[in-house]
Amino acid sequence: MVNGMSYALQKRILIILFLLVPIALLAVFALYPALYLVYLSFMSWDGYSPDKTWAGIGNYKEVFANKEIWGAFLHNLVYLGWGLLQNALGLFFAIMLNSKVKGRNAYRVLLFMPYIMNGVAVAYMFNYVFNSEYGSFNTLLHGIGLDSLAISWFGSPKAVNHVLGFITLWKFMGLNMVIYLAALQSVPSEIIEAARMDGASRLQTTLRVVLPNITKVIELNLFLTIIGTLEIFDLPFILTGGGPLGASDTFLTKTIDTAFKFNNFGMASAMSVTLITAVIVVLGLQRLATRRWSD
Question: Which intervals hold domain ABC transmembrane type-1 (predicted)?
């Protein structure tokens, strides 16, 4: 005992003191902004006036009644589809490069390298690739006689979101591969050898032994993919600005425009709360699906 305090009390006080700073930072930079966002979602505010008018659930009614907003949300689902393909390819290459392939370390570096590139640099690089006039992709199509397929990739409402989705796949697939590769290397080799000795083929071993042992990692990657695709902003903002005619707008670009272009911070806050709710619902469904699959 020190100064009449028991060891248990001293330990409790020390833990509380160590937690005060991170809890205070969490409250100031996370909890308070989140609560203030919910508060603003019920207000009518232009972003600079000192007066805020109570709007109730009017902002939410406007969000759910606005077809343009939910049309932009459907564009996010295109990214989600490419994100699922990105996960599948990352897992495929991880399985391939986890075996004794000649030059596998070089392949790992090549596949992971796009992820470490700056997002703005990637956007400008693909702007040259898919440029309708001098882009390398259209030049290739012309060179092999597929002139009819050479279109304005960023100017086509049907193609633009798929092009942007492909760019996200190219950039982030290497990250998925590295995460899956680390998970595969953590699977005990004894159970794989036991499955092989029991007569299981390589495909059966992968499906019945390896994948069930990395379910948590698959769930983590899907979690990151879903959040990333529902909150995509940088690529459409830099490459298309939401065009042509809003065809590449996402829910987040619409939210930013509502706040800073149309000075409707109340509705933008309601859109942000709606997006957060949508992310929670989708992640809950994903977690339920992965749990059933692992069981």
Answer: 72-286
Segment 221-248 shows an average pLDDT of 88
Q: For residues 53 and 118, what is the distance between their CA atoms, to the nearest angstrom?
A: 41
Q: Dihedral of CA 185/187/188/194: which sign?
A: negative
Does an H or E element contain 276, and which? helix 265-294
Provide the strand spans (E) within 22-76: 43-44, 53-54
Give the start-end residues of each E strand in the chain: 43-44, 53-54
Exposure string over 239-269, b if 16+ CB within 10 A, otherwise e? bbebeeebbbbbbbbbbbbbbeeeebbbbbb
Token readout for 51 is 């007066």
**How do 53-54 and 43-44 pair as beta strands?**
antiparallel
Q: What's the rounded mean pLDDT across residues 54-72? A: 91
pLDDT at 2 over 80: no
Tallying the residues shown for the chain, one arrives at 295
pLDDT tier, 165 (very low <50, low <70, confident <90, very high otherwise): very high
C-alpha torsion sign, points 235, 238, 243, 249? positive
Say if residue 157 is preceded by a cis peptide, omega within 30 of 0. Answer: no
Per the CB < 8 A criterion, the answer to whether 47 and 256 are in contact is: no
pLDDT at 294 over 80: no
CB-based contacts of 134: which residues, under 8 Å, 6+ apart?
128
- The CATH homologous superfamily for domain 67-294 is MetI-like (1.10.3720.10)
Choice among 12-16, 42-46, 175-179, 181-185 with the minimum mean pLDDT? 12-16
Q: Which residues pair with 5 in a beta bridge?
A: 2
pTM of the model: 0.86
Q: What is the mean pLDDT of residues 14-24?
A: 89
